[in-house]
């Protein structure tokens, strides 16, 4: 046997038989009669290296976690069987040991995935309970638009969550589905009732439109405007009719209103044009009236104002936007004259003059009595009483002066 026919993990005999060394001894792995012993060993060593490369790839895949534990374990078994019976020359026991070392790794991944599933299941249960609680809250409310949209979103979220244990999952689903069913039933009933009310409103509004259109050509401006206000109140009280119908009825109703009020505005505009000349007359009368102020001769001012007032009434109506201004100015002159007249009457009122004279007489008598008491107190040397009487006397004299001036005003 030549030196090249021996390998660390195998050998080749004179007949070209190749053997691999194992812990249990040698075992034949094949023949290579066509070449040299070195070529034979190289051929079966390359087989070992290919097998070692496969083991290395399997290690990488398993440790990276891309394979499920079940898939990884099955792959380890398959490759281990290939290593055990491999027709290759190399350290097959080392490969087997590397494969066996993967089993604890796989078991650790299995436990990790199991714990992860438990956690995700717990989280899914909490999430589903929240979805159920929100769905039940929506089912108790009356938000028919946003509620329906939110329930659809909740259903999508439910479907995206993993299943939990069958009993809990079924129980939560029954509550969730029941809330959706209850909400949908109440929502349908609401819109059915709404549709019925809208049909009733349509009948009412159709009648109101007929009434409104019948008034459109009226020239009784005040009375008809009041009737339109009443029709509008009844229109609002009727509530909405079906959408398309409601818009059409409103256009007819509003059209009738616009026709009437357009005619009224045109008529008022024509009247305002006629009344412009009247306003010019009244502006001239205001110049005369305001020239009476301030009043110096009450009788002459009253006579002049009566004449102006007669001509004011005869001048007729003025445009509505001038009415407040012009009436305010004439009333101001009238009130000024009346104020002077009232003041003069107050000064010459016989009853008030008599009361003023009586007050003066009473105050004069009271002063005489106090002066007499003061002389007695001084004679008696009663300084305290003297001081009190002097203070009282000064106060009464002040009142007497005021009363005398008032009496002179009334007598004047």
Helix/strand structural class: mainly alpha
- N- to C-terminal separation? 170 Å
Tally the helices.
11
| Mean pLDDT value | 87
User: Could you tell me the radius of gyration in angstroms?
Assistant: 60 Å
| Unreliable stretches | none
| Strand proportion | under 5%
Largest sheet: number of strands, sense, barrel closure: 4 strands, antiparallel
Bin the helical content. Answer: over 70%
What sort of overall outline do the alpha carbons produce when their principal axes are compared? elongated
Number of DSSP strand runs: 4
Q: Helix and strand succession?
A: EEEEHHHHHHHHHHH
Instruction: Name the strands of the widest sheet in spatial order.
Output: 1-2-3-4
Count of structural domains: 5
Briefly say what this structure is.
The chain is mainly α. Helices cover 81% and strands 4% of the residues.
Notes on the structure:
The mean pLDDT is 87. The chain has 412 residues and is mainly α. β1 and β2 form a beta hairpin. It is elongated, with a radius of gyration of 60 Å. It is built from eleven helices and four strands. The protein folds into five domains: 3-116, no CATH class; 118-195, no CATH class; 196-270, no CATH class; 273-348, no CATH class; 350-411. 81% of the residues lie in helices and 4% in strands. A four-stranded antiparallel β-sheet has the order 1-2-3-4, with helices on one face. α5 runs antiparallel to α6 (221-238), α5 (166-215) packs across α7 and α7 crosses α9 (320-348).
């Amino acid at each position: 046997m030549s030196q090249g026919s021996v390998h660390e993990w195998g050998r080749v005999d004179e007949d070209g038989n190749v053997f691999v060394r194992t812990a249990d001894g040698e075992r034949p792995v094949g023949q290579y009669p066509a070449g040299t012993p070195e070529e034979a060993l190289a051929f079966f060593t390359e087989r070992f290296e290919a097998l070692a490369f496969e083991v290395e790839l399997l290690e990488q895949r398993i440790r990276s976690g891309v394979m499920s534990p079940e898939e990884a374990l099955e792959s380890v078994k398959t490759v281990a069987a290939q290593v055990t019976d491999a027709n290759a020359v190399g350290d097959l026991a080392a490969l087997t040991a590397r494969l066996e070392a993967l089993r604890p790794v796989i078991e650790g991944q299995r436990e990790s995935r199991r714990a992860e599933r438990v956690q995700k299941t717990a989280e899914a249960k909490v999430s589903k309970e929240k979805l159920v609680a929100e769905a039940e809250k929506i089912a108790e409310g009356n938000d028919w638009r946003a509620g329906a949209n939110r329930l659809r979103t909740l259903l999508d979220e439910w479907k995206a969550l993993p299943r939990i244990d069958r009993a809990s999952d079924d129980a939560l689903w029954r509550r969730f589905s029941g809330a959706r069913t209850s909400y949908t039933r109440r929502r349908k009933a609401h819109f059915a009732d709404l549709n019925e009310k809208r049909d009733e409103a349509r009948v009412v509004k159709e009648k109101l439109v007929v009434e409104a259109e019948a008034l459109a050509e009226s020239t009784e401006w005040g009375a008809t405007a009041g009737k339109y206000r009443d029709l509008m109140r009844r229109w609002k009280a009727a509530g909405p009719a079906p959408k398309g119908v409601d818009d059409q009825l409103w256009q007819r109703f509003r059209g009738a209103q616009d026709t009437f009020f357009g005619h009224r505005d045109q008529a008022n505009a024509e009247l305002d044009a006629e009344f412009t000349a009247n306003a010019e007359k009244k502006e001239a009368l205001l110049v005369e009236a305001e020239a009476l102020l301030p009043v110096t001769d009450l009788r002459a001012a009253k006579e002049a104002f009566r004449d102006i007032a007669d001509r004011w009434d005869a001048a007729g109506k003025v445009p509505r936007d001038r009415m407040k201004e012009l009436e305010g100015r004439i009333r101001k002159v009238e009130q000024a004259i009346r104020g002077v007249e009232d003041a003069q009457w107050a000064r010459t009122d016989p009853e008030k003059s008599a009361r003023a004279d009586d007050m003066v007489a009473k105050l004069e008598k009271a002063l005489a009595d106090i002066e007499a008491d003061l002389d007695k107190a001084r004679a008696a040397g009663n300084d305290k009483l003297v001081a009190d009487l002097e203070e009282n006397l000064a106060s009464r004299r002040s009142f007497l002066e005021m009363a005398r001036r008032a009496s002179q005003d009334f007598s004047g």
